[in-house]
Amino acid sequence: MSFDRTIKIAPSILSADFADFGREIRAVEDQGADWVHVDVMDGHFVPNITFGPPAVAAFRKHVTTVMDVHLMIAPVDPYIDAFARAGADIITAHVEAGPHIHRTLQAIRGAGVKAGVALNPGTPAEAVEHLLDLTDLICVMTVNPGFGGQKFIDMTAKVRRLRAMIGDRPVHIEIDGGVDPTTAPRLAEAGADVLVAGSAVFRGGSVSNSAPYGENIRAIRAAAEAALA
């Protein structure tokens, strides 16, 4: 995956029809999604349970873009190889999920996968300052992780601080939580380039009527890009 800092929209399949993931993934890609975001939750680090490596491997068969796997689990390290084998292009671990995030990022890269690090809303940007040369992506949570559809928490100042820290390094800033055409412009202007959106993408559509997915994706992208013009 070559580095490209244009705005990318990454629909979260947590908001898709769980009974029809294959067609849902193909539908959002056909409608313009740049990446597909997979939220993995363990009922321990966050108060919800979603997908394991076998499910992610099943999703991989349908993803033709980038499969962005966000591990909201603790511990992380024992599962890195399984999610890499499942076909993740990017594996993101939370800085709060364990005592040795440096080792975790090394292990992700050692598995042949791009390495991401996520920050909960209460965690400052400085927590990743010494990880930037091991990191391909920083995921800024703009909700408390665990459930889709939550109210947006404004992390614009954190995004701006991260972009300044990153400098000219090829590191994406991803936003996860509450992204829609209203919040996207301020995030893009601050320096974010990957926008994860769940309900804001899947709202109003279905696999048999996927045109609203495209309308929603285009609305978020247009709002973000307008802030950069």
Q: Could you characterize what this model shows?
A:
Catalyzes the reversible epimerization of D-ribulose 5-phosphate to D-xylulose 5-phosphate. InterPro entries: Aldolase_TIM (IPR013785), Ribul_P_3_epim (IPR026019), Ribul_P_3_epim-like (IPR000056), RibuloseP-bd_barrel (IPR011060). It holds the Pfam family Ribul_P_3_epim. GO terms for molecular function: D-ribulose-phosphate 3-epimerase activity. A divalent metal cation binds at residues 37, 39, 70, 176. There is one protein chain. The chain is α/β, with parallel strands linked by helices and 229 residues long. Helix content is 31%, strand content 19%. The chain has eight helices and eight strands, in the order βαβαβαβαββαβαβαα. It has helices spanning 21-30, 53-60, 80-85, 101-110, 156-166, 184-190, 199-202, 211-226; strands at 8-11, 35-41, 66-72, 90-94, 114-119, 137-141, 172-176, 194-197. The protein has an eight-stranded parallel beta sheet. α6 crosses α8.
